Amino acid sequence: MSEAARPFALLAASFVLALGCGASRPTLAPAVELAAGPRAAPPEADGEGEILVWGTVNGRTRTTFRVAGDGQVLGEQSGVVLATSRGELVWREREQEVKLGGCEGGAPEEALEPGKVTQAWLAPRDAQARQVVVDPSSDGDGMAELSHGVELLGSVGPYLFVHESVYIFACGAHGNSVSSFTLWDAEAGKPLDLLLELPNKEALARRAEPMLDEGDQDPEEARKQEDLPELVQIMPVYGLRGGLRVDAQFMRGDCYACSDGLWSSYTRSAVLPSDGMPERFAPWSTPPVALVKFLQSRAGFVLGGWSRR
Predict the structure, then answer these.
(1) How far apart, in whole angstroms, are the C-alpha atoms of residue 302 and residue 268?
(2) C-beta contacts of 102-111 below 8 A and 24+ residues apart
(3) Looking at the domain assignment, is residue 215 inside a domain?
(4) Would 272 be classed as within a structural domain?
(5) Which of 1, 157, 222, 238 sits at a 20 to 30 Å CA gap from 303?
(6) Number of H-type helices and E-type strands within the chain
(7) Start-end of H helices in 108-151
(8) How many structural domains compose the chain?
(9) Domain assignment of residue 20, given as a range
(10) Confidence (pTM)
(11) Model confidence over 68-91: pLDDT tens digits?
């Protein structure tokens, strides 16, 4: 499933959902007009220069730290801030209520709890121009329940790993959930399909097959499927000293009752470390000295990503 296959376009088998996200990529707002400059230079390995580091402290609110080349903290801010050649961009989310139309012969509209969808974007600190990353429609016709969420899984330099999930009850036998993944390039202001660039995808898919068989209600039937499991998501994972690896999530279709809840309804999926990463991530695979020193001084800090000013 590519990033272009948005979750509202993927609701399984029993019905087709049209919430405006469709199968198209999110519409971009006007370009951020900041000081022009080249694309962000690859990080140096010598630790010189300031970096922005974001993550969570003891599982609490996300925080971004401005860190000097020697590892000293120069400042901090709540939330996620990225350094790019467009300037510093802040990750924003906003939940919005959606009026639901309900089911024919069901509860009247006024008796229904409103649905909820989440918008997400990147913007300079004090400007209105933004990069719209997630912008779901507010059309709730034919639905009795709607819940849509966005999760920022992590970042590698200017690249954001964004997971979307939506649960909908649209008057069928049961509700359905659908997930999708977007890799967002904050430098270019658009999504990228980097799933195609993950090395050894076929070998990884074959390693995922026995993992998907574990706990399956009918593994023999699952093995009859000719297609290999599908790569649906990649995620950055940072070590205690800031080293980077990329995990890969593979999915295959299954019965509704067989779903494992790790991706969408009618699916089972497995996550495993990949043997490599897209080439464009290589400059961030080795942490700079500033990041290593910062992490050594911050017990309980879980790194989400870092970028160089």
Answers:
(1) 28
(2) 102/143, 102/144, 103/142, 103/144, 103/170, 103/171, 104/171, 106/144, 106/171, 107/144
(3) no
(4) no
(5) 1
(6) 3, 15
(7) none
(8) 1
(9) 7-32+44-197+285-308
(10) 0.82
(11) 999 999 999 999 999 999 899 999
